[in-house]
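# step 3/5: fold
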Amino acid sequence: MQALLKNSVTIIAAACALAACDHGDPARQAAQYGNAPELPAAKNYLLPPMKVTKAGSWTNGATPVVPASLKISALATGLMHPRVVYPLPNGDILIVESNGPSQPKMRPKDVIMGPIKAYGGSAAKGGNRITLVRPGANGAPAQQTIFLDKLSSPFGVALVGNELYVANADSLVRYPYNEGDTKITAAPTKIIDLPGAVGSLNHHWTKSLLASPDGSKLYVGVGSNSNITENGMEAEKDRANILEVDRASGATRVFASGLRNPNAMQWEPTTKAMWTVVNERDEIGPDLVPDYLTSVRDGGFYGWPYSYYGQHVDPRVMPQRPDLVAKAIVPDYALGSHVASLGLVFNRADSPMPANLREGAFVGEHGSWDRSPPSGYKVIFVPFHEGKPAGKPIDVVTGFLADGHAKGRPVGLALDRSGALLIADDVGNTVWRVTPTAAAAAPAAARAVAAP
């Protein structure tokens, strides 16, 4: 078996070298941000272009790079594949440490992808736990404890009152929570099963979670079970959707569909509409299909698997559904092809951040090897005006790719109680904290005026 695996890696490395000859166009990638992305013709490949970047590490005090108006430091290090950061009302911060569950290997690609993920750092062991960090007062060291342990590939977290909800890869569960708790020992109460039973195929295993403003509903982002239905439509039941769960009864319905892999749903502060970032499909070219940031309509259909960016039909899917393609919603804002957008947080009206980073959304781009040269591997800011994207993105945190290695990969984002930006870095096993320099910080009086 070891010899077979070694041969598979050799073959895939050679094939990747050949496939990488079809490079993405930097000018086209730059034109794929905004509400009218440039979309080239789809391509067919024996093996799509790849650029697998070897995982590195942060050494000798190295950090990601931020503009001169910002500073960055490590909030927590030595973690086990941190994926999500979730601040609690009392200032404590939950860090979800996780990686995907074991899955059956149904195709040669499934066998090959294991070594590739290990090379790129995505196969690192996840903690299957939630760590709590309590920042120290007046510069004192932070307190760090294991808050919840022995979970099943957790991802989404939401606190409603004194109930903490966790979206595992296979279930939505609830725990009792008391403000100030540093550990929960109570057994979970299952609310509903989620697509992805233990031992079954669970291609996009991450399950994002968002509570409604009044706390009566929970929204769960469930990604597709394939790239483009190659595992059959029966494997896609209740997937590529955002599900709405009634918190009291557990009754569930599809809130929005056709979203290949929706992540990090958030409420936009001006319009109060739900927004999400979505990872689009692969294997039809280095400059297709752009991942995106979009508002989410109740009952809306966003194209997957039959079409992308509205009515651009994907001919690989059979049978076709022209009736669904006709009503596919065009996303609000393209983020570029294969950036792997996984994190989203809207800035606050009273933000201490520099003026150009106050009204809009931070987006974490995890990066992908489905494009040569690689794209993503940074945190950007998308300016908004009156509740809609309005302008070109701004690079905020870069430097995750350096010296031919991925020293880190940004995933989940959040704002702590002070307005600092928190970034989960699952390859660097670190949570980063970004704050303004003293000269760039918004004056307290100005923040008070801006606050609703």
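# step 4/5: annotate
The longest strand covers residues 378-385.
# step 5/5: archive (pending)
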